[in-house]
Amino acid sequence: MIDLFSLASIALTFFIVAVSPGPATISNAVVAMHHGRKAGLEYGCGLTCGLAFWGLVTASGMGVVLQSSVYLLSVLKFLGGLYLLWLAYRSAQSACRPEAESTINSGETNWFLQGLLLNLSNPKAVLAWMAALSVGLNANDDIFAIAIAAAVCMAVGFLVYVLYSVIFSIGGVMHAYRHCRHWIEGAVAGLFALAGIGLIRSSFTEQS
Predict the structure, then answer these.
(1) Which among 162, 188, 156, 150 has a CA at the least distance from the CA of 22?
(2) What does the alpha-carbon distance between residue 129 and residue 137 come to, in Å, rounded to a whole number?
(3) Fewer CB atoms near the end CB (10 Å): N or C, the chain?
(4) pLDDT 10s digits, 146-193
(5) Which of 205, 208, 207, 200 is nearest to 76 (CA)?
(6) Is-contact 32 115, C-beta < 8 A?
(7) Domain coordinates of the chain in residue numbers?
C-alpha cells in the first residue's frame, strides 16, 4: 500500500511539471483571457483528458514499451510536431485579425476537443508521468498503488488547468490581454512553432 508521503512526493513532482509554462498551460491561459472562464475550463477539461490518456499509457506499462519503440515514438512525435505547427499558424492568423473578427466564431468552437487534441499530440507527456510516478513508487507496489498514484496526478493536472482558467479569466487580466492581444498571440504562435519544430527534430534524432 502506498503511503501518504509517497503520494505527496508524486503530487508535488507532477504539480511542478504540470504548472510550468508549456504549450498546454500557455494555450489554456490564452483561451481563458480571450474567451472567458467557461471556455478556459472546457479547454482545461480537454487538456486533463489528454493528460489522463498518457497517464493510463504510463501506468499500464505501455509507457516503457513506447519509450523503447523508436519508430513508434518517432511517428507520434512527428505527428505531434505537425499539430503544434498548425496551432502556431492558427495563433499567427488570430494575432493578425481585428478583435471583432477574432471573437466572432468563439461560441462555435469545441474547446474541450481542442484541449484534448493538444495534449494527445504530446507523447513527451509520458516522460513527465514516468518521472512523477518513479518518485514515490517502487518495484514492489501493486496495480492498486499505481492506480491511486495516477489518479492523484490526474487530479493535480485538472487543478492546475482550473487554476490557469480562473486566474487568467479575471476581468483585469482579460482587459490587459485585449490591449496586448496581437503581441501575446504572436508570441504564442512563436512558442508553438518552436515546440513543434523541436518535437519534429526529436522524432528524427530518435532514429539516429
Answers:
(1) 188
(2) 12
(3) C
(4) 888 888 989 999 999 999 999 999 988 888 887 777 787 788 788 878
(5) 200
(6) no
(7) 24-205
